[in-house]
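Sample intake sheet
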Amino acid sequence: MAKEKPNMNVIFVGHVDAGKSTTVGRLMFDSGAVSEQEMKKLKEEAEKNGKAGFEFAYVMDKIKEERERGVTIDLAYKKIMTQKYQITIIDAPGHRDFVKNMITGASQADAAFLVVAATTGIEPQTKEHLWLLRTMGVQNICVWINKMDAVNYDQSKFEKIKEEASALLKTVGYKLEKVNFIAGSGQKGDNVAKKSTNMPWYNGPTLMEQFDLFPQPELPTNLPLRMPVQDVYEITGIGTVPVGKIETGIMRPNQKVIVLPGRTGKGALGEIKSVEMHHESLPEALAGDNVGVNIRGVGKKDIARGDVICDASKPVPVVEEFIAQIAVINHPTVLAKGYTPVFHVHTAQVPCKFVELIEQIDPRTGQVVKTNPDFLKNGDVAKVRIQPQGNLCLETQKENPYMARFAVRDAGQTVAAGMCIEITKQKQF
């Protein structure tokens, strides 16, 4: 079966209580992705658990549980069909490891909704979320100002948050003329799939209409095959099924692939047996598709989250050292040589050591401000030399931007974000 509409991966980010799950649940319901019957069941369940009004949030939670039980091999939660696209909403919003998931999610997203509650406005974490989206290469963003019902649909509240968000978007480097701000309520359904009658002053798009206003993602099918593994499932009757998003290239049955770094660090060779998306076998899957794949010759012990499935003739580099440009977002003190936090690169998490601070750069001009600075603090942008303390697959921004971006995390915080600009040493096997 041919795919009728192009797939677009969209992520919803925002503070824990901004109402992401409720908004997404409402969207699923209003767009018909969740049935009346299912919704009624969730509503009863929510009331039984003393969580009346949480039924929309339950839509996402229920799907998350399904995934944890391994019932479905879809990385995508649900599909929403718009006029133009097949939308895949990624990421289970809201738990403690949310940012960790968000990094994986953001690196897979074509567009993002930043969810801000009208009741609380911009929170400290909002800035971190924006930096991450920016560094992970998410170009297209829309600000969803939620919970307008809780502020009596007050236009001045909306304008104030729009102003604050605009200032923040500007510092991070988004072009404001390309960003829409939507006033709505996930709980009540205002401007989700239907135009709200409660805000005659608002004349922008609904959330549903906004999907089609995002430009169609350009598929990097001309680059070699790279599919970072998000999860590995054991499916009865099929065997080992790694799932993830094809970042670049094309995947077809009978294609020769190598899994890197693999459990041994030397990689595992195999051949694609079948590729599945939304429970259908595909003759080929393209960059941008979230798929499950079965590989001849590759079993459970050969592959794990963080590995990359590559074209056997064009493997991804496994690096011993690399040079990166980073932006320090949120470090409690200062970042100095010898610091060894965890790097999140595509779906991998590897501790890496800062072995040299090469130069500090003015983010606005790109000019060098200082060579070999002693330390870096929040807001600084710099060129640094990094040494992974484990096996890490990475490419340069020039070779493959989809495999060059990373976030740096320490003690539950995103300390910095960046991209690889030069590989100085590649591991020899």
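Comment: DSSP finds seven helices and 25 strands in the chain. Residues 66-77, 92-100 have pLDDT under 50 and may be disordered.
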